[in-house]
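Researcher: Here's my situation. A collaborator sent me these components and asked whether they could plausibly form a single complex. I don't have experimental data yet, so a predicted model of the whole assembly would be a useful starting point for our discussion.
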Amino acid sequence: MQHYKIVLPADLNDYGSLFGGTLLKWVDEIAYIRVSLDFPGQHFVTIGLDNVEFRHPIREGQILCFQCDKTRVGKTSVTYNVKVYRARYETESEEILFENNISFVCVDNAGEKSIIKQQE
Amino acid sequence: MQHYKIVLPADLNDYGSLFGGTLLKWVDEIAYIRVSLDFPGQHFVTIGLDNVEFRHPIREGQILCFQCDKTRVGKTSVTYNVKVYRARYETESEEILFENNISFVCVDNAGEKSIIKQQE
Amino acid sequence: MQHYKIVLPADLNDYGSLFGGTLLKWVDEIAYIRVSLDFPGQHFVTIGLDNVEFRHPIREGQILCFQCDKTRVGKTSVTYNVKVYRARYETESEEILFENNISFVCVDNAGEKSIIKQQE
Amino acid sequence: MQHYKIVLPADLNDYGSLFGGTLLKWVDEIAYIRVSLDFPGQHFVTIGLDNVEFRHPIREGQILCFQCDKTRVGKTSVTYNVKVYRARYETESEEILFENNISFVCVDNAGEKSIIKQQE
Amino acid sequence: MQHYKIVLPADLNDYGSLFGGTLLKWVDEIAYIRVSLDFPGQHFVTIGLDNVEFRHPIREGQILCFQCDKTRVGKTSVTYNVKVYRARYETESEEILFENNISFVCVDNAGEKSIIKQQE
Amino acid sequence: MQHYKIVLPADLNDYGSLFGGTLLKWVDEIAYIRVSLDFPGQHFVTIGLDNVEFRHPIREGQILCFQCDKTRVGKTSVTYNVKVYRARYETESEEILFENNISFVCVDNAGEKSIIKQQE
């Protein structure tokens, strides 16, 4: 699944670049949508991200492409790899701006850890 | 291109359903990202949408799938068809929740209408 | 009823002009307030807009005047004409920046279409 | 000039009522639009509000009517009286939910106090 | 208690300075957090602010320091003094940018005025 | 430095709990304010966070206390430890809801890595 976001004036810090924390918020939202679609009828909460590294500043007007792939399904948790590319001006560039692995745990209505029901 | 949005508490009207105008805002943003990616290095502004019809109320927690396809490229303008599906609980449903055609005109830095440069 | 909005940095796209979709969101909100006031105690949802045309780019700092008039009351639905004028610098200009007709349907608590009760 | 606002989920505190500070933000925005329209081509900044008293809690779904009247024009400053009424369910109620006087000073491009130019 | 806020592009008016009303919204939120922490298990609503005076324009990128001190505890209400300082570039400056007294009343679940229970 | 945030309806996901990504956004903003205050006149961008683990769901109305401490100052980068506590109902609880180390690099106007000037 690919997902796109455009960096708008309302997303910027006082030096005109995107907050690192805002990028993490987008990564979480996009992966949350993905896990909700992959396991319909079940509920998930984020439990962790790998070590986070920001190597490239991101500017206003930049369009970001988020590539989100399921890489591991455990008994009660699931992990996605999210890569962020620059998607404009130079068409989809090969350069990865940001990458992380984000994990979710399946929970029941009481918020207790619950077994993931795989679809056939 | 497919795009997903989750309907959150901050998007709702006072009866707990999504504002029609908020859905149109999302359609415009998603198609704007699409046209910016399809014609890199050129700038576009929205010039119109077809007659708009909302047939299905949309509730909190719903994940929406936006399918955005380029349907017409003219000398200075381009049109996308956007279909919105319900994407959760019942996996990708066939039922179209919303559909519209949205058009953009290519403009230069002075804001004047400009010829679309097609990529080879 | 007249309504005013000022275009602020948080409303802009990456080229410094207002998103067309944001203008539609405002039209929907303002007409929704109008229909809620005109028929107190009843609940409405947006069902449609006419063909949408954006002819004038709108910039930061612009104050917009929305003129919203009830033009049709049917058995279960009602239509408003919304005109948007530029309201600053040149005092209320005659030039219409944007115009549309927006319709709402009256619904009961179950979300079913319901008869509009006219006030005496 | 009358202005309307609807109280939406995104405006509420953790007990489901409108923050007093959010109401003041709306009063400031509406009076700022008013002064900008009354004196086109000049720039104003808020310099003060009278003693503020909140007497009535305001709930989700409430539509508020802001009545904004110019009450004093000085050499460099101008004052508006803003009254807020409940506008729904009981049609425009006579009861004032909130009232304040808000003043603006006219400033030049350097931010220095400047003489208000009255229109003929 | 001290609290900090950074002024970002999304907070600005069309002349690049902070809205007075936005500053009041922040004062209310910060004092609301303070009263909720000082009297755990009880619920408060804002009832008033002193006469408000804005003497200094506040610009993008400015970090504001809010100093919030409890100055009066009555039977059913409590007052905080909030001072706002400029906190950057010149390290914590002595100059007060803004000052006000804000009062809250303790309410029960029905929204009725209620006696403040002091902690030992 | 301590910092407080209240979890409001606009911050919640569709199950009524705080998004993990939103918590990371707050951690980044608060540490960004801290580094900007600690090294006035210099500019910083976030370069990384440690492995992220969310162990406790966070609900609407919760007040969070962020404790932010400088733990390492290098030649061009600086690290803060951020702990998040629950701050309400049970007064400041000892239990850590969330903890992370976040690092910033000092950059010049061209965005190049730059030496941190320590204050005497």
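Model: Some features of this prediction you could bring to your collaborator: The longest strand of chain B covers residues 96-107. The interface with chain A takes residues 1-6, 29-30, 32-33, 36-37, 40-41, 63, 87-91 of chain B (CB under 8 Å).
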